[in-house]
């Protein structure tokens, strides 16, 4: 695994760990921020491992679609991507709700952490190849 892939993977792992810690502490917005970041960095790990540039975007959907187009299954559905994209900006700033018409809740946070775990497992497996 390249140094670049190693760095992306380490950052993804750290974001996932923080997401879990903040979830346990009941800090829902930081949980969502870190779950989204873990998924994003895991997808960028996969890109680097597949000799693709790590694209400067925060869009889970765009990163996922490009990997699918390149023939790689990330395990994220379009709905998963939409959910993770919906929390990127709105979980960082109080001007908008985290999800359309709904504040963050425990179930949404748990689901987002599971999605981040799922794509991180895929990234770790790709990195081992």
SS class: mainly alpha
Approximately how much beta-strand content do the residues carry? under 5%
CATH superfamily: Nucleotidyltransferases  domain 2
Number of DSSP strands? Answer: 0
The rounded Rg comes to 14 Å
CATH class reads: Mainly Alpha
Number of helices: 5
Order of helices and strands: HHHHH
| Uncertain segments | none
Describe this structure in words.
With 129 residues, this protein is mainly alpha-helical. It contains five helices and no strands. It has helices spanning 3-24, 28-49, 60-69, 78-86, 106-128. Helix 2 packs parallel to helix 5. The longest helix is centred in the last third of the chain and has 23 residues, at 106-128. The termini are close together. The mean pLDDT is 89.
Give the SSE map.
Blueprint: H1 3-24, H2 28-49, H3 60-69, H4 78-86, H5 106-128
Could you list some keywords that capture this structure?
single chain; 129 residues; mainly alpha; Four Helix Bundle (Hemerythrin (Met), subunit A); 5 helices; 67% helix; globular
Report a brief summary of the structure.
The chain contains five helices and no strands.
